[in-house]
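ok so for the tutorial part 2 we go from a plain amino acid sequence to predicted structure tokens. step 1 is just haveing the sequence, like this:
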Amino acid sequence: MIANQHIAVVIPSFKVVRHILQVIAEMPEEIDKIYVVDDCCPDKSGDHVEAHCTDPRVMVLRCASNQGVGGAVMTGYRQAIADDMTVIVKVDGDGQMDPTLIPAFVSPILNGDADYAKGNRFFDLEEIRQMPKMRLFGNAALSFLTKLSSGYWDLFDPTNGYTAIHRDVARHLPMEKISKRYFFETDMLFRLNTLRAVVVDIPMDAKYADEESNLKISKIIGEFFIKHMRNTCKRIFYNYYLRDMSLASLELPIGISMIVVGGLFGLSHWIGSMQSGVATSAGTVMLSALPVILGTQFVLAFIGHDVQSVPKRAFHLKQRTISSKPTVNS
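step 2 — the prediction. this is what the tokens look like for a chain of 330 residues:
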């Protein structure tokens, strides 16, 4: 750890009374503050921690109503920012996340290499064999959708909740707009990209026993798909038309237009050919295929540009540079 840097841990607490005390006990000595956020827990986990935990670093925060994991984390973020913590780590209270990995999450942020670090359970191919097949498939599908909606093409395992963030990045997040429930982690990535924050994956083991996940892929796939498409459109508009313009800003609409026009032209002639029984001429087929082929090339060129546009310079370093510039008196 770097001197004069303060590390905080946020632990959303909802139905984790059996594990929460052990999670707190395993926190490294380098941690300055531990915020246990009682998310209107029916087991009164906040009271349980206050009654049985003597760690002076612990502060119990209570939500007036159940906010979901996203709302609970934002509650912890606000308190950590108010307490001037440098890096804020989020760890679940169910004991599935190894607290000894916290230095690995914090180091790239303190070293200026990243603004946000998240776990990746897919790094070690031998370890992920123990992951349930349905969860493995679901995470692969969600990871692809997240690449589209967030713009972080080099990341995987988007629903991983083991994260760390720099204070100067967290304070710029629109906390009231971030999804409060299962879409929280992936929505965070979208919001971070609008700030041009640098995000890195931290390899970690996949630890699964016989616990049942609350995230049911069959129930949320439709909702997640709609939200991902919404965020994809927002991100492209923000980055390629509102904030900046580039050749890629032209490639995407031209490519989509050519695919649509070529496809509709070909479809109309195919239907006409089916109805009349007369084969479509080779020239007509080429007139349909050519704009589709060219349009696909334009779209692929846009995607290639988008992949290369993943943020590279840490946002909190840019903020520090701006704030340190001397003011000129007029």
